[in-house]
Structure formats: structure tokens, C-alpha cells
Amino acid sequence: MKEKDKKEKSFFNKLHDKYRLVLMNDDTFEEKLSFRLTRLNVFVFFGTFSIFLVIATTYLIAFTPLREYIPGYADFNTRKVLHELMLKTDSLETELNRKELYIYNIRNIVEGRDLVAEMPDSIENKTDFEIEELPRSREDSILRAEIESQTQYIQWSPEEVTSSGEGLAFLFPPIEGIITNYFNPAENHYGIDIVADQNEAIKATLDGTVIFSSWTLETGYTIGIQHANNLVSIYKHNSALLKNEGSPVKAGEAIAIIGETGFLSTGTHLHFELWLNGRPVNPLEYIAF
After folding, report:
1. E-assigned strands of 127-252?
2. Residues in a beta bridge with 38
3. How many domains does the chain have?
4. Which residues have C-beta within 8 Å of that of residue 186, sequence separation ≥ 6?
5. Are 172 and 272 in contact (CB under 8 A)?
6. Count of CB atoms situated within 10 Å of the CB of 228
7. How far apart are CA 201 and CA 243, in angstroms?
8. Residues ≥6 apart with Cβ < 8 Å to 131
9. Which pLDDT tens digit goes with each residue over 233-257?
10. Which CATH number characterizes residue 160's domain?
């Protein structure tokens, strides 16, 4: 027992034993630097230094971008970034669905169908008709060049049209001719029919962007223009279209050539419609023909 106590005391006494660390010049044996050390001081120094290294490494990994360079270390911001991307994707999907519904209702207007509040899951009894693109004749090319090279008509500012319908009197007449059929929603006739000479140019009634330029079975070559403040103008039964979808147009600019295409056409004329805020309006109340 005494020997054991003696050994323990001897161990603790050695911790406090003092030593001198001396740095000397190897050639002259001149003392340059010396330190007085104990085993306890050495243990405390290296222990403290080790703890400092552990804390510093932990801080660098947890709170600095250096952690991204450590293989296999996950980025805690990844989940936040993914959540933000999901929200943006949902917003884009909602906006895309709204745009598709808008275009679908424009097509319903052009083809004389009722407007819908949401896109149908499936469209039954829908027949697609392939239209073979016929080569243009020399006369057709000359006529197109003549129409497109005509001097532009009076320009009207789209700001003159308000969402309430005020200012629509400044719309440009799409063509000069004789009105043979009038606006009558009760009979599903949402516009007016204007008879004019063959090869007459049809003009845009206001500045806007072409949102529909194609051929349908009932209305033939049809073009639709989106104007400011939810105003849409529709031009049906044309013999040729001079503008493509997405093309910007000015008031009075030639956009088509009058014709008699489509099953519903009974002769050379223009069927012209105006839609304001999704509802048909009588063009005769706003345009002086």
C-alpha cells in the first residue's frame, strides 16, 4: 500500500518537475533561447491547442462556405433552394394554364363556340383537318406584294381604348363596303358581315398582336388580334392571311385579303367581330363604316 502511494506521489511530483529547453548555437554553443517547462505545462499547452483546432475546424465546417468542398457533406440550403424552385414552378404552371385557357377561349370565339371557365380534360368529337399548302401563283404573289406595300393608314394609340368601352369610336374600319348582316347575339351572330370587292385588303382596327392566324372548317382563313384592355378583333372568311401568330400590327395595316372561305360563307365578304372583356360588342356602336 505504501509502495502504491509512493508511486502515485512520484507520478504527480514528476508533473511539476521543472525542465529547461535550451536552443544553442551548434558551433559556439552560445545559448540563444531557453524555456522553463514542466510536464504539466506541456500537457496543458497541447491539450488547449488540440481543443482550439477542433473548435476552429467545427466552425469552418458549420458556418463557412468551405464545407461545400468537403466530399459527402450536405448543403443545408439545398432544401430551401428546392422549396423556392418548387414554388416558382407552381407559379409558372398556373400562369401557363391561364394562358392556355385564354387561347382556348379565343379559338372558341373564332369558331363560334361558348366560352369556358376551365380547360376541359378531353375534347370529344374533335376532328383535325390537315391543310395541304398549295404553291402560290404569280398573280397571288403580285397581289400580296401590292397589298403589303400600300401606305399605312392613320395610326391610333391603344391607350385611347378603355376597359369600359369608352374610346372605341377611334377604331379603324377594317374595310369599306356594304353591311349585309348585322350584330344579333340571339341568333349566335356576334359580328357584322361586310361585302366588298374582291382582292380588297382588310386592315387592323387598332394596334395589337396577332394571336390567331389559321384556317378553320367553318370560318376559313381567320385572323384574330389582341388589343389593349382586353379588346379582341376577329376577321373571318378571308382568302389569304398576311400576318402570322405573334406578329405586331398597327391600326390600318393590311392583315388579310377578303374572301369566301369556310362552310359558313355565302359569298365574298368579311365577318368582323369585336370582343371586349370576353363579351361580344356591336362594332356599329364604335366604328363609323
Report:
1. 178-181, 191-195, 201-203, 208-216, 220-227, 231-241, 248-249
2. 18
3. 2
4. none
5. no
6. 16
7. 12
8. 215
9. 999 999 999 999 999 999 999 999 9
10. 2.70.70.10
On whether both 55 and 164 belong to a single domain, the answer is no
Is residue 172 predicted with pLDDT exceeding 90? no
Contact 265, 220 (CB under 8 A): yes
Answer yes or no: do 54 and 155 share one domain: no
**Domain final residue, candidates 69, 101, 118:** 69
Q: Do you know the residue count of the chain?
A: 289
Computed over its alpha carbons, how large is the radius of gyration of the chain? 42
Cell of 263: 362552310
Q: How far is the CA of 51 from the CAs of 47, 66, 67, 241, in angstroms?
A: 6, 20, 20, 81
Are the beta carbons of 176 and 289 closer than 8 angstroms?
yes
Cβ of 113: how many Cβ atoms within 10 Å?
A: 12
Q: Which amino acid is at 241?
A: L
Domain of 171, in residue numbers: 146-285
Mean pLDDT of 99-125: 73
Give tens-digit pLDDT for 22-62.
Answer: 888 878 878 778 877 787 888 888 889 999 999 988 887 77
Q: Are residues 253 and 154 in the same domain?
A: yes
- Show the cell assigned to 185: 347575339
113 belongs to a structural domain = no
Question: Does position 76 have pLDDT exceeding 70, yes or no?
Answer: no
Angstrom distance (rounded) from CA 151 to CA 127: 41
Q: What's the pLDDT at 167?
A: 44
Q: Does 130 fall in a domain?
A: no
125 falls within a domain: no
Cβ of 73: how many Cβ atoms within 10 Å?
11
Count of CB atoms situated within 10 Å of the CB of 107: 15
